[in-house]
Design a protein that fits this description.
Layout (H helix, E strand, L loop, with lengths): L1 E6 L3 E6 L3 E6 L10 H15 L6 E6 L10 H8 L9 H19 L5 E5 L2 E3 L1 H8 L2 E5 L3 E3 L13 H9 L1 H10 L3 E2 H6 L5 E3 L2 H16 L3 H15 L3 H15 L3 H13 L2
Parallel strand pairs: 3-4, 4-5, 5-7, 6-8, 7-10
Antiparallel strand pairs: 1-2, 2-3, 8-9
Helix pairs in contact: 1-3, 2-11, 3-4, 3-10, 5-6
Length: about 270
């Protein structure tokens, strides 16, 4: 029996009779990039599940060979194009970055374990979304990329904290300041993800086994353990989101970002 919560064709959301809640990003035409509407569906589901005692574990997955390539630039460019000069005004800029912050906050607001299932690229806010999870499983072909710097922006979705906390200052600086891609094998060696497997079939089997183990474990013990671990490892998460909100709001209005959007608009067929 499945309890369909919301979503549609692009964000598929369900809860089974074990209390396993699933979100599947299904926007293969955009490599699972998230526009405002898709993000709101995910946030709404996570917030609803955070208030339910029957939810035992949450799984976030991406279909079609990508986890998520980040914020949908077409969506941002369309918003910017509504204004004279093609830039974002302060309210629009804050709205764009608030969407990413709210997404990461919604993940962290779930009291039960959240599992990210990564097959392919996890880029920008897509990487931040994966890093906000408690357990991250990835295929060997997957990679993580904080691509913000390449278009005049900074990491958001809490990645400025979660990445540095996991991989250390030097590796985090390379990812954030240089926009360097981190293959799954290196992400595992650096302690950023839980486990890597060969392919999608092995990924599904591994996640299914993990979910079964979590469902069979005391729900109260899982919730209290997660809360205790978060107090030590994620204590600065809200402060990181606040810093990102301030910085990213300014950067989204910058000449550099406007030029990147103009170049993107010019490159579209």
């Amino acid at each position: 029996m499945s309890d369909n919560v919301a979503g549609g064709d692009e964000i598929r959301v369900s809860v089974d009779d074990r209390g396993v809640a699933r979100i599947e990003i299904h926007r293969p035409h955009r490599m699972n990039a998230l526009d405002g509407a898709a993000s709101r569906v995910i946030i709404g589901a996570l917030e609803e599940w955070s208030a339910r005692d029957d939810i035992r574990v949450v799984v976030i997955d991406g279909a079609g060979g990508s986890f998520s390539t980040g914020a949908d630039v077409i969506d941002i460019a369309a918003t910017a194009g509504e204004n004279t000069g093609g830039g974002l005004d302060p309210t629009q800029a804050r709205g764009v970055i608030s969407g990413g912050s709210d997404l990461a906050r919604a993940v962290r607001g779930v009291a039960v374990p959240v599992v990210a299932v990564v097959d392919g690229p996890a880029v920008g806010i897509g990487a931040s979304l994966a890093f906000a999870a408690d357990l991250v499983y990835a295929t060997e072909r997957s990679y993580f990329l904080l691509a913000f710097i390449n278009i005049g922006l900074m990491p958001d979705g809490g990645a400025s904290m979660s990445v540095a906390a996991a991989v250390g200052r030097a590796r985090a600086n390379a990812m954030a300041l240089l926009g360097e891609k981190l293959p799954a094998t290196e992400a595992f060696d650096a302690g950023l993800i839980t486990k890597i497997v060969a392919d999608r079939e092995a990924l599904d089997a591994t996640v299914d086994a993990t979910v079964a183990k979590l469902v069979a474990t005391s729900a109260s013990a899982l919730r209290l353990t997660k809360k205790a671990l978060d107090a030590h490892t994620m204590g600065d998460f809200d402060a990181a989101l606040d810093r990102e909100l301030e910085g990213q709001t300014a950067l989204l209005q910058s000449a550099e970002f406007q030029a990147a959007m103009a170049a993107f608009a010019g490159a579209k067929p």
